[in-house]
């Protein structure tokens, strides 16, 4: 009797969504605008649960800190928890806006005294079903249709504009 050995099963690999932008500002300011002013520049329509009801978005600036939106009526909707907090160079958080939590890492790299590269990597898609991958996103198509890539491009464009604005200029990006 012969036994047939099967090769090990390799889990389906779903590549991370990666986006990068260059910000004409120093790394400290760039990081600060991202975490302290996120409620001003983040495009809550369509990239939030509350949309036009969102009053603010908060990043609790420490490992284990929460990232969440607060609505006009006081409702709080969690976006995730900070897993890594290394200001002004890196933060990693769970992303609970997907049916199964994924992970978002942002890396801030000084390329010069007034130039910073910001790289986003949104990963952990292996845990989502095919239906969740194609449907779950503020934009049509979800992960499989490119909605997350387009979404992060939009978010980074708004962020870049806010970080490059004159420092005396108030927000008002909504």
From TrEMBL:
Give the highest taxon in the source lineage: Bacteria
- Supply the Gene3D superfamilies for this chain: 3.30.530.20
Identify the residues that the record assigns to the Activator of Hsp90 ATPase homologue 1/2-like C-terminal domain, covering every copy.
55-161
Q: Which family does it belong to?
A: Belongs to the AHA1 family.
Q: What is this protein called?
A: Activator of Hsp90 ATPase homolog 1-like protein
């Amino acid at each position: 009797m012969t036994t047939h050995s099967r090769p090990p099963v390799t889990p389906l690999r779903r590549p991370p969504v990666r986006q990068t932008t260059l910000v004409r500002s120093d790394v400290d300011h760039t990081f600060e605008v991202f975490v302290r002013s996120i409620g001003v520049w983040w495009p809550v329509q369509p990239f939030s649960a509350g949309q036009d009801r969102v009053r603010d978005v908060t990043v609790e600036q420490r490992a284990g800190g929460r990232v969440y939106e607060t609505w006009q009526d006081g409702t709080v909707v969690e976006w995730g928890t900070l897993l890594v907090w290394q200001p002004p160079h890196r933060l990693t958080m769970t992303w609970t806006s997907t049916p199964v939590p994924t992970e978002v890492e942002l890396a801030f790299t000084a390329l010069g005294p007034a130039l910073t590269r910001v790289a986003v990597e949104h990963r952990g898609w292996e845990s989502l079903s095919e239906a969740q991958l194609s449907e779950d996103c503020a934009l049509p198509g979800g992960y499989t249709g490119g909605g997350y890539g387009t979404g992060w491009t939009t978010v980074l464009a708004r962020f870049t504009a806010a970080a490059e604005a004159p420092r005396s200029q108030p927000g008002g990006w909504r």
